[in-house]
Structure formats: structure tokens, C-alpha cells
């Protein structure tokens, strides 16, 4: 059996032609179209909490985007739950941002995907700060220091933080985000 991989250009063209609809819950990861996770109430609340906390931490000059595409590479256009990019929304009228300074995923059933394929794609793109709000364990998984390990892209630093801890985003080192503020 053969499968076909898609490029971002082809994926965007399918949307333009109406074959795929913008409101369909799909993400392009490593050339594969992945059906995005349905949101239960805790998942939806965690996205909003994370966006609020990151807007406070980063302040003016940063755009905190919820579930919007990023142009990660030629074959990946994920829609992370939250991404922080430099500038303002109008800076991206002609193309999706390519280099977020922080990407955050909220995970319950998607934990394997977020730790696996998404983490590898984000690491391969050189995204230095990748956070997963792990709803099942009520912790924040912080992945940093992207690089290769035995030929495979990964994050060489992983911290598991509980609700009583705070941390600073790499791109906003003077700010502190409390893990409790990210959990529903």
C-alpha cells in the first residue's frame, strides 16, 4: 500500500479550490493530513487560559494566536493550540508566520501525537520553546533545546512542572507564567 505526502502549497490549494474547507479540523504534519483533536470543555478552557497568561507574559509587540496555522516547513502547516509570534496580526496578511517563539499544545487524547510527531516537527524547525499542557496528569511539559539524537529530531531538555511552579518563556525571560494559570 502506498500513501501520498502533501506539500503546504498543495494543501493550501486544496483549501482554495474548496476540496478542503477552512473550518475542517485538519493539520498538515510531515506531509500527512491529521484530523485535529475534538475539544471537550477542559481542553477549550485550557486554550483560553494559556492564551490569556501568555498575552500577559509577552505584552505588546507579540501576537498570541489560538489554533491558527504556522508555516513550519515545506510539508507542515500545524495549527497549534497557542503560538506566540513577533508583531501583530496584520503582519501576517500575506502569509502565515513561520517562526513562533513559543508553541503550546493542550493534550488529553492527543498526548502521543503532541509528544511524538509534533515534537519532532517543531524540533526540526528549530522552535526553542515547546510546551504541552498535559490535562490528564495536570502538569506542564516544557521541551527546549531542539536537536538531533541518533539522527532523529527531538528536544534534549524536558521539564515536567506541577501547578505550584512558575517558569519564564525563553523569549520573555523577565516574565513568569504560573503552571496553575494554564490548568482548568
Question: Key terms for this structure?
Answer:
10 strands; 6-stranded mixed β-sheet; alpha+beta; globular; 22% helix; tt1808, chain A; 184 residues; 4 helices
Layout of secondary structure:
Layout: H1 8-16, E1 26-29, E2 32-35, H2 41-58, E3 62-66, E4 82-86, E5 102-107, H3 111-115, H4 117-124, E6 129-134, E7 139-149, E8 152-161, E9 166-167, E10 177-178
Parallel strand pairs: 5-6
Antiparallel strand pairs: 1-2, 3-4, 4-5, 6-7, 7-8, 9-10
Overall description:
The chain is an alpha+beta fold. The protein is globular. Strands 3-4-5-6-7-8 form a 6-stranded mixed β-sheet. Strands 1-2 form a two-stranded antiparallel sheet. The protein has one domain (39-182): Alpha-Beta Complex (tt1808, chain A), CATH 3.90.1570. The protein is built from 4 helices and 10 strands, in the order H-E-E-H-E-E-E-H-H-E-E-E-E-E. The chain has helices at residues 8-16, 41-58, 111-115, 117-124; strands spanning 26-29, 32-35, 62-66, 82-86, 102-107, 129-134, 139-149, 152-161, 166-167, 177-178. A hairpin with a 4-residue loop joins strand 6 (129-134) and strand 7 (139-149). The mean pLDDT is 90. 33% of the residues are buried.
Amino acid at each position: 500500500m502506498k500513501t501520498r505526502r502533501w506539500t503546504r502549497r498543495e494543501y493550501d490549494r486544496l483549501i482554495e479550490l474548496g476540496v478542503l474547507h477552512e473550518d475542517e479540523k485538519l493539520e498538515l504534519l510531515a506531509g500527512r493530513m491529521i484530523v485535529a483533536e475534538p475539544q471537550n470543555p477542559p481542553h477549550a478552557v485550557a486554550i483560553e487560559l494559556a492564551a490569556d497568561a501568555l498575552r500577559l507574559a509577552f505584552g505588546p509587540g507579540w501576537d498570541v494566536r489560538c489554533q491558527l496555522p504556522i508555516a513550519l516547513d515545506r510539508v507542515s502547516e500545524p495549527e497549534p493550540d497557542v503560538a506566540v509570534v513577533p508583531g501583530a496580526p496584520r503582519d501576517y496578511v500575506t502569509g502565515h508566520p513561520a517562526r513562533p517563539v513559543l508553541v503550546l499544545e493542550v493534550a488529553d487524547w492527543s498526548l502521543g501525537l503532541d509528544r511524538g510527531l509534533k515534537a519532532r516537527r517543531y524540533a526540526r524547525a528549530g522552535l526553542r520553546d515547546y510546551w504541552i499542557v498535559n490535562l490528564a496528569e495536570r502538569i506542564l511539559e516544557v521541551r527546549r533545546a531542539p536537536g538531533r539524537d541518533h539522527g532523529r529530531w527531538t528536544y534534549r531538555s524536558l521539564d515536567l512542572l506541577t501547578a505550584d511552579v512558575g517558569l519564564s518563556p525563553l523569549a520573555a525571560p523577565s516574565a513568569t507564567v504560573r503552571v496553575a494559570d494554564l490548568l482548568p
